[in-house]
Specification:
Elements lengths: L7 H10 L3 H12 L2 H17 L9 H23 L21 H9 L2 H8 L3 H12 L4 H8 L3 H25 L6 H5 L1
Helix pairs in contact: 2-3, 2-4, 2-5, 3-4, 4-8, 6-9, 7-9, 8-9
Length: about 190
């Protein structure tokens, strides 16, 4: 439970967060590729979402909170590029409401479904394309939901997903060839 009982807005927020928490954390983990950073990013997104909850339009909570998470990630990435450091929630005295990483269901599923090779290939996809691919292919969001979450037009989302998938395909193909799962065209002609 994220909050004490007795506050109807907090209880409503908690009920809405509960079913999508593992997706929020999983997306943060895929973006940051670091469990500690993912926990920080998830916590910050939850805090920001709760602070802005009264402005939530009630349409698609998962897309809304993933937009907050994505924007926080992009802002951190930009700040890190400018300053070379990232802020810490410890400095803000924030309390972490998450379970240990190994107990989070999304992480357990993530570890089983995505091998190290896929993770490495995904890490090579530039952030702007990786975010779109993660939200669409791993979180199952529609192009419209990804557009809403990333605040770009649907056409841009389609382009980013196509480019991200092409990079993933190229990276995974190189791995498959190296491991002997695929043969080079020259070998097939012999």
């Amino acid at each position: 439970m994220l909050f004490k009982r007795g506050n109807p807005q907090r209880e409503r927020f908690e009920r809405m967060v509960s079913p999508c928490f593992s997706s929020v954390y999983g997306t943060a983990l895929r973006l940051t590729r670091n469990p500690d950073e993912a926990q920080d990013l998830t916590q910050e997104a939850l805090v920001r979402a709760y602070e802005a909850f009264e402005r939530f339009d009630g349409r698609n909570f998962k897309a809304w909170i993933l937009r907050i998470l994505t924007n926080l990630y992009i802002n951190r990435y930009r700040r890190l590029k400018r300053t070379g450091t990232a802020g810490s929630l410890d400095e803000e005295n924030a309390i972490e409401p998450t379970a240990p990483v190994e107990e989070i269901p999304d992480r357990q599923l993530f570890d089983r479904l995505l091998g190290a090779e896929v993770e490495e290939a995904l890490a090579k996809v530039p952030d702007v394309f990786r975010i779109a691919v993660i939200l669409s292919d791993l979180e199952g969001m529609s192009y419209d939901e990804v557009a809403e979450a990333t605040e770009v037009p649907v056409g841009t989302v389609r382009s980013r997903i196509a480019r991200g998938r092409a990079i993933l395909r190229r990276e995974l193909e190189a791995y498959a060839r190296a491991e002997g799962y695929l043969k080079d065209d020259e070998e097939d002609d012999e």
